[in-house]
Amino acid sequence: MTMAVKILVVDDHKIVRDGLCSLIEGLSGYAIVGRAGDGRQAIKLARREKPDIIIMDLSMPEMNGIDATSSIIEEMPFCKIIVLSMHSDKRFIAGALKAGAYGFLLKECAFQELKLALDAVHNGQTYLSPQIAGTVVNDYRRQLVAQTKQEPLTTKEREVLQLIAEGFATREIADKLFVSVKAIEGRRRRIMDKLQINTVAGLVKYAIREGLTGL
User: Which of 78, 109, 125, 189 has the maximum number of C-beta atoms within 10 A of its C-beta?
Assistant: First the structure.
């Protein structure tokens, strides 16, 4: 007989706790093992009940959900936490994910979405509400753009660096890029100056580390 997935519900509003527990108890394969009204109580219950999944609110007295999540994951890494919050600000999302949460849902979501999250997290997957996923992706894109702007090498210099790392001689690189040998030598000097790397071996290591080549 398959054991039911043990669920701990944490929310400082009793009506929310009771409502969630009532709905989850109607699901096949899931069982409520505890209810907590703040982060400290959640930690105590998690230690005692060893839940498989914790549904965690963020804004609570005594200890907030992010700190509680971090403490529980550090002590019980097997436990998977789904944050259920009214906050969609990226600071809360980033804080929860950094603390170790496997999922992040908004309280406005339908119960069916919570069911999807429970199933996904139980299977070792991460689940984010569509609105949350959009926020995470957009923030990641902004970070990539910022990193690109800070990239020390131009696109042409990266192209030359990749060819150097792949073992092509200066003349071969010049022929491939339809420029003079002198131009390639100049680019190589600029690459070395920018990266403060003085050897070809060093350039190869840098190219591999940055994903320019799979060598």
Answer: 109
